[in-house]
Amino acid sequence: MRVLIAFGSRYGTTASCARALAGMIRSPSVILDLARSRAADLKLFDVVIIGGSIYGGKLLRHVTAFCERHQDALLGKRIGVFICCLYQGDHARLQLRDAFPPWLLERSFAHALAGGELFYSRLNLLDRLLVRGLSRGRRDVMRLNPEALQALADAVNALEAT
C-alpha cells in the first residue's frame, strides 16, 4: 500500500504535521507540498491524505484546487483529511466540515484536527492584523494535537491489515 500526503502550509505547521504523520505510517509514504508542486499521479497511490491550514476560516486555495482538480481520481481512493487551526472543540470541527467539499468528507475514512501554532514574529503585516485577536496581543500560541495525528496514522495502518 502506498500513501500520498498532500498538504498546504503557509508558515510551516502543516508541513511539520505532514512529516510527522509520514513517520507514523508504516506503509511507504510520499509527501507533496501543494504550494510547490501541484503535479501528482494519483494512480500510484492507494491512500491519499489531504491536509491544510485554515486562514480566515478557509482552507488554503491550493489545497481546495488540488481537491477539485483531482476529484475523479480521489473518488476512487481511500481518503483521509486533516486541518491545522487554532480553534478547538466544536469550532474546530466546524472548520473541518467547512474546509473540504462534502463529497470528499463523505468519502474519507478518517479526519484529524491537528491543532495549530501561531508564531507572531513569523507573520507578515496583513496576517498580524488578522490574527491579533487570536494571539491575545503578540504572544505565540501553540495548540498542537499530536494524538489526533497518531489516530489518523493508526487508521491508515489499520487499512494495511485489511
- Poorly predicted parts: none
Q: What form results from the Cα inertia axes?
A: globular
Distance between the termini: 11 Å
- Rg is 15 Å
Proper CATH architecture: 3-Layer(aba) Sandwich
The count of helical stretches stands at 7
CATH homologous superfamily heading:
Flavodoxin domain
User: On the 0-100 scale, what is the average pLDDT?
Assistant: 86
SS-derived structural category: alpha/beta
Q: Helicity range of the residues?
A: 25-40%
- What is the CATH topology descriptor? Rossmann fold
The CATH class designation is Alpha Beta
Strand content: 25-35%
Could you give the order of the helices and strands? EHEEEHHEHHEEHEH
Report the biggest beta sheet as strand number plus sense, adding barrel if it closes: 6 strands, mixed
Give the tally of structural domains: 1
Tell how many strands the DSSP assignment holds: 8
